[in-house]
């Protein structure tokens, strides 16, 4: 092999390297993408406004009127679909994994005769008024210690208020909204 052939091989290798790196740099120039400034993922938070004098809190110090003003029955029907796996809210609907909830607002806790409640729920002794239902829906295991209901709860005030309004509507005698 003569030196001219070796020079052609070396030139071909160098030209290939220059073309590969050149195309890479050219692609960077043509397809330049500016890096995003700030957070890449925007977190959207939902806020609910209540009139100035109203405060909504969970626990014993709650303004139930302000809480219920956040909800609506149609939204409650949609949210209740999560509950429908274990509960029925229709008139004549039977017990499922959980007790039937037709007429639950105003009813004594643990009072359906053909349902086997946990000892904690049977001994709870309170009526399901708006405040009690709100506290229970927030975190059932904390409100009724020892309940067999495994649901983690509804954190959003609007969701809880809407479900309470929906459950109140599903009754022969709905309780007047405060």
Mean pLDDT: 86
Assign a percent range to the helix content.
Answer: 40-55%
Give the overall shape, derived from the CA principal axes.
elongated
Q: Give me the Rg, rounded.
A: 32 Å
Number of helices: 7
- Helices and strands, in order, run as HHHHHHH
Q: Class by helix and strand content?
A: mainly alpha
Number of strands: 0
Residues in β-strands, percent = under 5%
The largest pleated sheet is described as: none
How many angstroms does the end-to-end distance come to? 102 Å
Unreliable spans? 50-58
Describe what this molecule looks like in 3D.
This protein is mainly α. The protein is 40% helix and 0% strand. The chain contains 7 helices and no strands. Helix 3 crosses helix 7. It is elongated, with a radius of gyration of 32 Å.
